[in-house]
Amino acid sequence: MRIEGALFALGFVFFSAVAGIYWFLSGDEIGTTALALTGALAFLIAFYALYTSKRVYPRPEDRLIAEIDEADPEYGFFSPHSWWPLVVAFAAMLIVFGLIFAVWLIVLGISVLLIGLVGWLFEYYRGEFAH
Q1: How far is CA 130 from CA 76, 77, 126, 127, in A?
Q2: Which of 14-23, 74-83, 86-95 has the weakest average pLDDT?
Q3: Which of 51-65, 66-80, 97-111, 113-127 has the highest mean pLDDT?
Q4: How far apart are CA 22 and CA 8, in angstroms?
Q5: Residue 76: pLDDT above 80?
Q6: Is 80 exceeded by the pLDDT of residue 53?
Q7: Alpha-carbon gap, residue 37 to 12, rounded angstroms
Q8: SS3 assignment, position 43
Q9: 91, 62, 81, 70: which is closest to 124 by C-alpha?
Q10: How many other C-beta atoms lie within 10 A of the C-beta of residue 12?
Q11: Which residues contact 70 (CB under 8 A, 6 or more apart)?
Q12: For residues 123 and 129, is the Cβ–Cβ distance under 8 A?
């Protein structure tokens, strides 16, 4: 977790510096506040990650002499042939377009989303890839 903490600490330094430069050059309070709060959030995450890294056993990613086999081999199952995530993404696009343009697109998007979620859920229960 030490690497992640260092990355967020660099983010804190970057966003704090950019907030100061932005305020000096533009005088805009809203953008400066957004950048300063982004830096504050990065600081909170950096503090937590660095504080926790001192109290937990070092992961293989944190040790220089670690072997590849020490990492957790099970990262989950990801279907390489599935088209259902594309259907779900299309449905999300329809729902967002419905919020912008017309309500009937929301209804269509929710219908396509339900079909996509059911298809994705039961993908391995029937057809060529059934278990």
Answers
A1: 18, 15, 5, 6
A2: 74-83
A3: 97-111
A4: 20
A5: no
A6: yes
A7: 10
A8: helix
A9: 81
A10: 20
A11: 60
A12: yes
- Cα 112 vs. chain centroid, distance in angstroms? 24
Q: How many CA atoms lie within 13 A of 47 on its CB side?
A: 7
| Cβ atoms of residues 98 and 92 within 8 Å | no
Q: Among candidates 63, 15, 3, which has minimal Cα distance to 39? A: 15
- Give how far the C-alpha of residue 68 lies from the chain's centroid of Cα atoms, to the nearest Å: 25
pLDDT tens digit string along 97-128? 999 999 999 999 999 999 999 999 988 887 77
Q: Over the chain, what is the mean pLDDT?
A: 90
| Contact between 87 and 108 (Cβ < 8 Å) | no
pTM beyond 0.70, yes or no: no
Backbone angles phi, psi at 102, to 5 degrees: -155, 150
